[in-house]
Automatic annotation (TrEMBL):
It comes from Oryza meyeriana var. granulata. Residues 1-27 are annotated as: Disordered. This is Pentacotripeptide-repeat region of PRORP domain-containing protein. It holds the Pfam family PPR_2. Belongs to the PPR family. P subfamily.
Amino acid sequence: MSSSRARIRVSALGPDGGASRLNRTTQGRQRAAESEDAHHTFDELLHRGSSSIYDLNRALSDVARGSPAAAVSLFNRMARDKVAPDLCTYGIVIACCSRVGQLDLAFATVGRVIRTGWRVNPIFFNPLLKGLCVHDRTSEAMDIALRRMPDLGCTPNVFSYSILLKGLCDSNRNQQALDLLHIMADDSRGGCPPDVVSYNTVINGLLREGQVDKAYCLFDEMLDQGISPDVVTYNSIIATLSKSQAMDKATEALTRMVKNGFMPDCVTYNSFVHGYCSSGKPKEAIAILKKMRRGGVEPNVVTYTTLMDYLCKSGRSMEAREVFDSVVKRGHKPTIATYGTLLHGYAAEGSLVEMHHLLDVMHPNSWSVYL
């Protein structure tokens, strides 16, 4: 195997060494198997003829988790077999259509339900709102939630608003998300008070856009509203500061986190390891590893892989191999990302013998990402 060919094969794994691809494949197979079992269950219930709509809905929901298209097909069979659906059944179908981007069908199903005169609730609409936001139609979702739902006597709940907030933030409309959050918090409008998830969503959006000052102001506003931040809030702030290599500010945020009664977890420390490594400060990163252990937090594979990545990019793949060996010695199972990081390092240095040795010890299932 030539060094150039090796580099091409390793780089084809992607920035995470192919871990996400392998995970998606494994999870996809598991969901498919579960969906097939649920499909058989649904067939038996429908064939029985005396099954309750509750049991059919439960089986339909199980199918939908693995295969939305199959669930819609089964719904059509219910109609042919003259089994009357209820509001829950239609909700499952709307969620399926929304997930696969068949929003016209989702709208048609909503219209059919409204024409029947059923009283709808936010749970019924939320999958449609999510589908619209995911497919870059957040403005339509806003119109439904803020105008059409109230017209039907259906007040959006905090989950509805959180969907809208995420849709706005994902489309870089953070100011609109901030305005919507303030509408929620305005008691005089009789709205839906935001919760910690609502604030976390907008704080994350602001941080992604580099609007750190605004995010901090919103964080303070959150406290003024009597809403306690959680570990996710602090981790988001620390992760952003660490990515921008503002390690002093990240340390200040950590101090504030502990002062307010939240102990850092592995995610918190991993942000610091990443920040120090990207800042070219491996000694500080190693100090974080020691601090983790002293605090009773065991570094995970992500922690070690981050350190290995720094070492490999610095031309120190042999030291990265020592870290790799310590990962195995501590009982952690290296991921494809771990292997990919070390393979990249070897390839960059032209260490083909070491590459072959590492490939020999990789788990056979790991090779699926090469295929």
